[in-house]
Design brief:
By secondary structure, this protein is mainly α. Among the domains are: about 1-95; about 315-385, no CATH class. The chain contains 23 helices and no strands. The protein is rod-shaped.
Length: about 400
């Protein structure tokens, strides 16, 4: 075999010669020297699909060294490939650990053209093990970005790229390549977890929200999504997307606190305030949640819709003195409708009040004409307990 390869290694070869050389050497086990010689003697010049398949098949059996893998990839890198060629190339290189050079070559030689689900799964699986450089991750994402993916492919792609820090290019590519189509809970959790670490740009946050916005979510998914987006300043688009993607379904106290805290900083538009109130309106709340919701919405002028929503979402359950003062203070400014006044009185009617609470309640409702219902409610809510001259 070695003599035959060596005697035929020099000079250009026709397609017939290459096919004959592969076929005459296809049978029987080969040493590493024979494989390297066979690759090297066939590396030059363009190849037909038959030649590629024969070369893969004749080298598929047995363990390979890093040199053999690199040579096999390099000798087959050029030109378009059929699905059979791709699958054969994967299968012959799937076993054993790989160096960074081998991974990059394998991705690059298979990057072009559409791929079947079998090819995608094989490519992910053959590259899943071991740490990866930023170049490898970007190549893997880019080579798998096109076309619809099954749930198995998405999970494999996330899992094979989950470890290690990522650049902004990698995060955007990973989000974009997984953005289309419905996702299972496992896929969402993996996508959040693989992108949770490190600072994110506004583009990355919007992509992450948008790619996870559709479909019902578990409590684990909501908490992960909030936590992975909690750090850093956010634009109005990011806040609205985060609220909207988490608005549906009941929430735990942890989810509510995280959602409030991640959106507490910075000025908010009326749309953001209404969304934040509406997404947190349902279900009982702890004192901590009420205070956070009031504090995160306290700044800036409010529309009548925002005031009514804030009152209604906080109306149920007993309140501490801090909650009452915050609720009054956050709603003190601007004229109020009769509905707002009645809601504010009713939500604060129960329980004893301090002098500060009474003065604030009176002051926030002092302006404008009042109906008999408002006057009676205001008197009743302030009737109990001793009063100061103020």
């Amino acid at each position: 075999m070695i003599l035959l390869c060596a005697s035929l290694a020099a000079g250009p070869k026709t397609h017939v010669e290459r096919i004959l050389l592969c076929a005459s050497l296809a049978a029987g086990p080969k040493t590493h020297v024979e494989r390297i010689l066979l690759c090297a003697s066939l590396a030059a010049g363009p190849k037909t699909h038959v030649e590629r398949i024969l070369l893969c098949a004749s080298l598929a059996a047995g363990p390979k060294t890093h040199v053999e893998r690199i040579l096999l990839c390099a000798s087959l890198a050029a030109g378009p490939k059929t699905h059979v060629e791709r699958i054969l190339l994967y299968a012959s290189l799937a076993a054993g650990p790989k160096t960074h050079v081998e991974r990059i070559l394998l991705c690059a030689s298979l990057a072009a053209g559409p791929k079947t689900h079998v090819e995608m799964i094989l490519l992910c699986a053959s590259l899943a093990a071991g740490p990866k450089t930023h170049v490898e991750r970007i190549l893997l994402c880019a080579s798998l970005a096109a076309g619809p993916k099954t749930h198995v492919e998405r999970i494999l792609l996330c899992a094979s790229l989950a470890a290690g820090p990522k650049t902004h290019v990698e995060m955007i590519l990973l989000c974009a390549s997984l953005a289309a189509g419905p996702k299972t809970h496992v896929e969402r959790i993996l996508l959040c977890a693989s992108l949770a670490a490190g600072p994110k740009t506004h583009v990355e946050r919007i992509l992450l929200c948008a790619s996870l916005a559709a479909g019902p979510k578990t409590h684990v998914e909501r908490i992960l999504l909030c936590a992975s987006l909690a750090a850093g300043p956010k634009t109005h688009v990011e806040r609205i997307l985060l609220c909207a993607s988490l608005a549906a379904g009941p929430k735990t106290h942890v989810e509510r606190i995280l959602l409030c805290a991640s959106l507490a900083a910075g000025p908010k538009t009326h749309v953001e305030r209404i969304l934040l109130c509406a997404s947190l309106a349902a279900g009982p709340k702890t004192h901590f949640e009420r205070i956070l919701l009031c504090a995160s919405l306290a700044a800036g002028p409010k529309t009548h819709v925002e005031r009514i929503l804030l009152c209604a979402s906080l109306a149920a359950g007993p309140k501490t003195h801090v909650e009452r003062i915050l609720l009054c203070a956050s709603l003190a400014a601007g004229p109020k409708t009769h509905v707002e006044r009645i809601l504010l009185c009713a939500s604060l009617a129960a329980g004893p009040k301090t002098h500060v609470e009474r003065i604030l309640l009176c002051a926030s409702l002092a302006a404008g004409p009042k109906t008999h219902v408002e006057r009676i409610l205001l008197c009743a809510s302030l009737a109990a307990g001793p009063k100061t001259l103020a």
